[in-house]
Write a structure and sequence with these properties.
Largest sheet: none
CATH topology of one domain: Helix Hairpins
Strand content: under 5%
Structural class: mainly alpha
Shape: globular
Radius of gyration: 17 Å
Order of helices and strands: HHHHH
Distance between the termini: 33 Å
CATH class of one domain: Mainly Alpha
Helix content: over 70%
CATH superfamily of one domain: MazG-like
Number of helices: 5
CATH architecture of one domain: Orthogonal Bundle
Number of strands: 0
Bound molecules: magnesium ion
């Protein structure tokens, strides 16, 4: 559950999985950046050729929702892997970017 799991716990889960398979040599910044984009494309496939209403309605199907969740999980796992490889603190980079977004996009600007 998001309310009880920390980012540190997810990082450990992913890092342990990678280490147990000795995948570190394959987890280069290039490969992980490409993998994030590839998984994002797999997520987009679920909404290709349907309008926004149909796309939203498709998520009411629990099977579709599970498949979409799997693709989102793939994206997040690769994003966590990238953060591990690049020694990036996810909380710091998200909070920093959101602070900059606050300045770029003030509330009430439409
Ligand atoms: Mg996938």
């Amino acid at each position: 559950m998001d309310t009880t799991t920390t980012i540190a716990e997810l990082k450990t889960l992913v890092a342990d999985f990678i280490a147990a398979r000795q995948w570190e040599p394959y987890h280069t910044s290039k490969n992980l950046a490409m993998s994030i984009a590839i998984e994002a494309a797999e997520l987009m496939e679920h909404f290709q050729w349907v309008d926004k209403t149909e796309g939203q309605q498709s998520l009411e199907d629990q099977g579709v929702k599970a498949e979409v969740g799997d693709e989102l999980a793939d994206i997040l796992i690769y994003a966590i892997s990238f953060a591990l490889q690049a020694d990036l603190d996810i909380s710091e980079i998200v909070r920093g970017k959101m602070a900059r977004n606050e300045g770029r996009f003030p509330p009430g600007q439409g």
